Amino acid sequence: MTLSAFPPEARRSVALRVLGMLSSDDLPEIALCLLELPGSPSAAALAGEGPRERAELFDAALAELGLELPSRLEAARYLRLQVAREAARGDVRPRAAAELIRDIYQEVELDLPRGERVGSSLNVGEVIGLYYSFDGVESASEFAQLEGELLEALKTIAGEEG
What we know:
- 60% of the residues lie in helices and 0% in strands.
- It is an all-alpha fold.
- It folds into two domains: 3-65, no CATH class; 72-158.
- The protein is elongated.
């Protein structure tokens, strides 16, 4: 199943859930988006339940709607692209975007085919390398230069088809 089967406003949250990066407290927000699709009493019931019940109701809502969660790799690729696009638009600072991309990569690292460099199989090696280059930077000019390089790397990812 692909993320495109989900309402657009729910896709990011669904992808984060697949990677274990979203708490059950956030499931009611996804359920509100799923209410746009007819046929799920479980989605409506999610809002008032506790964490354990939320996970069960969320899974029941997906089944009622005929939706399946995407694979971990699909979720990671989707999030990587969305975060890079947010940085390219200026909605999020490049370093914060790189940190989230690093976190996404770490969630699926063992699921990926082996690349020659860290992150190469998800095409995030340059972003991760630049993210770690900020460690120990003291001068404002060096920080600005690194941030510019990082933004360019994020724009390259953002330009990919999704």
